[in-house]
Amino acid sequence: MTETPDSVTEAPETPNSEVDCLCPLGGVMDLLSRRYAMQLVCVVGAIGPARYGDVEAAFDGVSSSTLSARLDELVEAGILAREQYAEIPPRVEYELTDTGEELRDHLSPLIRWAEELDEGTISRTQE
Amino acid sequence: MTETPDSVTEAPETPNSEVDCLCPLGGVMDLLSRRYAMQLVCVVGAIGPARYGDVEAAFDGVSSSTLSARLDELVEAGILAREQYAEIPPRVEYELTDTGEELRDHLSPLIRWAEELDEGTISRTQE
DNA sequence: TTCAATACTTCGGACTCGACAGTATAAATG
DNA sequence: CATTTATACTGTCGAGTCCGAAGTATTGAA
Q1: Residue A126 lies in a domain
Q2: How far is the CA of B59 from the C1' of C11 (A)?
Q3: Can you name the residues that pair with B91 across neighbouring β-strands?
Q4: Chain A touched by B81 (CB under 8 Å)
Q5: C-alpha distances in Å from residue A24, one per residue of A27, A28, A49, A82, B36
């Protein structure tokens, strides 16, 4: 299985009965566990309707192939909406769906916390 | 660069000045973007002091090499604490550090939201 | 005619992951 | 005494994923 989220229909069926509130293995969490996925939701949410080039520039260092793949997956999952305009040169805009907005609301506190933690961590080679 | 979080010292230096609250690319978010990382924080938090075997059983399908790597990274990042007892057979217990607890607090709403979303998504093969 | 602009693909190689077998130790079992 | 059992991993190899760079398509501008 190549994990392309064509259909998000992988019920984990409670892998173990000892723990109840562990995270689902298939589905949205798997999507979000891929590189730049969470950041992408943040960026698109922050920019508003964001063009592909804007997103690429915001990241500064992501390969276009990976970015493209991530974008597709997020659209497929119903988190991002893609609107393409019939112009030359082409124009495509991404923005959060309602579901995407919800996700961003849940993601924001995590992001802010991570930023603060990273700032405080100067060098941690020694324990 | 192989991204091993030996030292979390990759300052992104504000990749783009147009967006301010986008997510950091290096650091904790990168660690959490790896497979099972977020789930691992949840599981260890739920079980309490968790032995390696408990964690492995809770996931039901993770390879031991990957699980081991993730565990090491999380320990290295100061999110998990590892305690090893000099017994035979060996016993090792993992639990969340204070930082790890904070992370779990920020992760929980996301997880719950994801679970609900996955439940509602029956089949989405058609757009 | 060539260049510019945009939103991606395609490609080869590097990196990461999964499955499975193996390691070390000592107590319990036969 | 030899074998099994239990735990927490590590090693290996093939498959899957990600990266950087170059290429594609289109049409107006120079």
Answers
A1: no
A2: 36
A3: B85
A4: no
A5: 7, 8, 30, 27, 10
Measure Cα distances from A80 to A74, A96, B83 in Å.
6, 5, 42
pLDDT 10s digits, A8-44: 333 333 333 334 556 666 688 989 999 999 999 999 9
Least confident range from A38-42, A113-117, B80-84: namely A113-117
Q: Six-digit token pair at B83?
A: 């305690």
Element (H, E) at A45: helix A37-47
Range of the domain at A37: 28-116
Position B24 pLDDT exceeds 50: yes
A17, part of any domain: no
Domain membership flag for residue B98: yes
CA distance B107 to B31: 14
Residue B22 lies in a domain: no
CB contact B54 to A (< 8 Å): yes
**How many domains, chain B?**
1
**B9-15 average pLDDT score:** 36
Nearest CA in chain B to A26: B118
CA A89 – C1' D25 distance (Å)? 10
Q: What percent of chain B has pLDDT over 90?
A: 56
CATH number of the domain at A62, please.
1.10.10.10
